[in-house]
């Protein structure tokens, strides 16, 4: 039981931070940052939704949103948005399900097998959340790196060259955290399924036996009435 509680709490903590990392990564503006800021007076960051420029001297930040979501965008941007939003939804649902499945939460306290299945379902959701999260963040980072390398290889200088920033790293960290928490809940918590099932089946005969004993005791308070004829036959039989 102690190991089960430990795995639940570790999985819950990792799932909380992983979901938070994915959400922060999706809605922050530093997926791409200018690669060489030593000669620049400002730091330029690009996110999935807007581009921000921060002045190095006074720290003033100005952000420009991209065009409407219905406007024409690059395939990289559109697919990364879709995958990260999907990861956010799945990781958030996985964390909420895990909270309901914790033994310390008074939700279905008399149904340990159902609570265990809720934990397993949350683990599956977290594993599924890690797939689009890691795919979107790694693909975006690799695409930025390949684009920058190709420009350097052909000696093309466009004034500003980008590398992947901390938002992209945060998306990778959140995705790996989802894989970790999902693995703990699906693989390790599965080992406790037989224990919970055994407790449930062992408790059922006890309740059934207790019910039968109660019936016997109850019937003892209502003895069957014997008629005079039956008493006479009983006396003749003894004689």
Automatic annotation (TrEMBL):
<dbReference type="GO" id="GO:0005198">
    <property type="term" value="F:structural molecule activity"/>
</dbReference>
<dbReference type="InterPro" id="IPR006187">
    <property type="entry name" value="Claudin"/>
</dbReference>
<dbReference type="GO" id="GO:0005923">
    <property type="term" value="C:bicellular tight junction"/>
</dbReference>
<keyword id="KW-1133">Transmembrane helix</keyword>
<keyword id="KW-0812">Transmembrane</keyword>
<dbReference type="GO" id="GO:0006811">
    <property type="term" value="P:monoatomic ion transport"/>
</dbReference>
<dbReference type="GO" id="GO:0160184">
    <property type="term" value="P:paracellular transport"/>
</dbReference>
<comment type="function">
    <text>Claudins function as major constituents of the tight junction complexes that regulate the permeability of epithelia.</text>
</comment>
<dbReference type="Pfam" id="PF00822">
    <property type="entry name" value="PMP22_Claudin"/>
</dbReference>
<dbReference type="GO" id="GO:0005886">
    <property type="term" value="C:plasma membrane"/>
</dbReference>
<dbReference type="InterPro" id="IPR004031">
    <property type="entry name" value="PMP22/EMP/MP20/Claudin"/>
</dbReference>
<keyword id="KW-0472">Membrane</keyword>
<feature type="transmembrane region" description="Helical">
    <location>
        <begin position="7"/>
        <end position="27"/>
    </location>
</feature>
<comment type="function">
    <text>Forms paracellular channels: coassembles with CLDN19 into tight junction strands with cation-selective channels through the strands, conveying epithelial permeability in a process known as paracellular tight junction permeability. Involved in the maintenance of ion gradients along the nephron. In the thick ascending limb (TAL) of Henle's loop, facilitates sodium paracellular permeability from the interstitial compartment to the lumen, contributing to the lumen-positive transepithelial potential that drives paracellular magnesium and calcium reabsorption.</text>
</comment>
<keyword id="KW-0965">Cell junction</keyword>
<dbReference type="InterPro" id="IPR003927">
    <property type="entry name" value="Claudin16"/>
</dbReference>
<keyword id="KW-1003">Cell membrane</keyword>
<feature type="transmembrane region" description="Helical">
    <location>
        <begin position="120"/>
        <end position="142"/>
    </location>
</feature>
<keyword id="KW-0460">Magnesium</keyword>
<comment type="similarity">
    <text>Belongs to the claudin family.</text>
</comment>
<keyword id="KW-0406">Ion transport</keyword>
<dbReference type="InterPro" id="IPR017974">
    <property type="entry name" value="Claudin_CS"/>
</dbReference>
<keyword id="KW-0796">Tight junction</keyword>
<keyword id="KW-0813">Transport</keyword>
<feature type="transmembrane region" description="Helical">
    <location>
        <begin position="169"/>
        <end position="192"/>
    </location>
</feature>
<protein>
    <recommendedName>
        <fullName>Claudin</fullName>
    </recommendedName>
</protein>
